[in-house]
Amino acid sequence: MSPIGIRRLFLASVGHFLGFHDRFLVHAGGVVVDGITLLVLGPSGAGKSTIALAALGEGWPVLGDDLAILRRSPGGIDAVGVPRPPTVPTDLGVSLADRGRPVPEDPRSRAQLGAEVLATGFRRIDGIVVVGHGKGPRAEVTPVSGRDVHFLLLGSFPPASHPDQLRRAHPLFAELSRLPARRLGHGVDPGQRLGSAAAALLEVSRELTSRS
């Protein structure tokens, strides 16, 4: 079995175990911007790690760049990052990535930071950011439907092939899909990508703050 296949099997097994304890593993990042916790969704290569790196550069807490555990709480739905070292891009100019260790034989030339840069503890999720690649030089923020968020959550759930686990997770995903959600398309200019991503995150957090 290939390393990718082994990883998928491992995550599905871990996700299956957590599901029986009402904890749900998802492929997602998480950042806290001015007290607003944003769950970051997107497939591999969409730019979740760039979001994490932009947040770290601003001194904002980062829960993780790739994996998160969700749970229901009296105040809503909480998330905590899985404490694995974040792997971040190195082609975006001078940044925290320069302190990382190069990932061997990585076609994307990324660097691995220490797990100590991640914030710990569960945080209540206030909104969703769906990350991807835009067409302009700087990041763009646009609306995204709850339906799209719901499908992304289902696709990000490693044990989704197990009907029992999917039945357990579905109500929580449906509730998350009703939270405010925005699509953040990264700018195509590498020199501006981190700064414009940070500005876009701040725009989203301020919008959510004005709603509360």
Fold and architecture overview:
By secondary structure, this protein is α+β, with helices and mostly antiparallel strands. It has one domain: Rossmann fold. 34% of the residues lie in helices and 27% in strands. It has five helices and 13 strands. The chain has a six-stranded mixed beta sheet, with helices on both faces. A four-stranded antiparallel beta sheet has the order 1-5-6-10. A hairpin with a 2-residue loop joins strand 5 and strand 6. Helix 2 packs across helix 5 and helix 3 packs antiparallel against helix 4. The longest helix has 22 residues. It is globular.
CATH domain class:
Alpha Beta
The name of the CATH topology is Rossmann fold
Beta fraction: 25-35%
> What is the succession of H and E elements?
HEEEHEEEEEEEEEHHEH
List the domain count as a whole number: 1
How helical, in percent, are the residues? 25-40%
The CATH architecture assignment turns out to be 3-Layer(aba) Sandwich
Helices and strands: which structural class?
Answer: alpha+beta
Largest sheet: 6 strands, mixed
Radius of gyration: 16 Å
User: How many DSSP helices?
Assistant: 5
Query: How many angstroms does the end-to-end distance come to?
Result: 49 Å
Mass-distribution shape: globular
Biggest β-sheet: strands ordered side by side in the sheet: 4-2-3-11-13-12
List low-pLDDT spans: none
